[in-house]
Every structure is written in C-alpha cells, then in structure tokens.
Amino acid sequence: MIEQIRTALIVALVAGGVFFTFVSATGVLRLPDVYARAHTASQTDTLGAGLALAGVALAMGWQSATVITALLLVFIFVTNPTAAHAIARAAYESGVEPWDERERGGGER
Amino acid sequence: MSLVNDVLLLAAAAFVVLAIAMLYRVVKGPTMQDRVLAVNVLGTNTVVILALLAAGLDEPWFLDIALVYALLNFLMSIAISKFTVERGGII
Question: What is the ipTM of this complex?
Fold first, then answer.
C-alpha cells in the first residue's frame, strides 16, 4: 500500500516537472523580448527542475545519494533566478529596448 | 520498481526533446543575452536529465557530474553577463 502511494507520488512529481519545463520551453521560444523570456525561464524552469528533482529524491529512497539530490535541488532554487536576474540586468545595461505594444505584428519572434 | 524506472527514463527522454528545442533560440536569438538565457535553460535541463538517469539506471555517481555541471552553468551565466556589460573588465 505504502509502496503504491510512493510510486504514484513519484509519477505525479516527475510529470509536473515535465509539464512546467514544457511551459518554460514554450515561453523561451515564443515570447517577444529578452525580459519576458528571462521571466518565464526563471519561474517555470526553476519549478520544473525542482519538481523533477524531488521525484528523483523520492525514487532514490534512503541512501547517501539522496543527500546529493536534495543539495542539487536547493542549489538550483537559489542559483537559477539569480542567473536570470543577472542576464536581464546585463541586457538592460547594454541597451536592449523592451518590447512595446505598438510593435505588435512587426516584432521579431 | 520497474514501473518507476520506466517513468524516470521516459521523463528523461522528454527533457532531451525540450532541451534540443532550446537550440532554436541559441541560433536565432537577436541579442547576446537571449543566447545566454537559452544556454542557461539548456544547462538546467541537462542537470535534471543527469539526475533522472542516475535514478532510472540506478547509477548514483551520475549525481556528482550533475552537481559540477550545475556549478559550471551558474558560473557561465554570471561570467558572460558581466563580460558583455564591461568588456575587458576584471572578468
């Protein structure tokens, strides 16, 4: 019984990770400028990686490798938004113009 | 346990497909920052793929490679962001 609950939880967590990473990939491919792309990359990619790594940690069970997985999860939660913030700030300081509503239709995708 | 391994390997395959889709933005991206952002997302996907393979194939030492790759990925993003702003600076 407890094993079935654990299997269902692993499947749900990994499926959630795949879903949020799909949302992140769609956003990075389709959104109009670098600031919107940085936003979707930092939010949904962190959530997708976190859910998938939680599923992996649950599938590993009680062994020493689970500690490394938990460390990786905490590390990705800290560093991924920091990197996206640094990239967006670098884009602003090197003079990239934000996308405007008036450019609709003529904007580059 | 076999079902869990199959699910983990299938999810790794889906992550590989999504990581390859990022290469479109790396090639096309209008600015330098678009390319860095796409490579950063691709690196995060690679870390998750390595962790899923470590659990799915039952080889825990893949996680060490994933940890080192996550560190290098973060350092790459910060370094290129800083380099494109003040070219020829300290880093």
Answer: 0.87
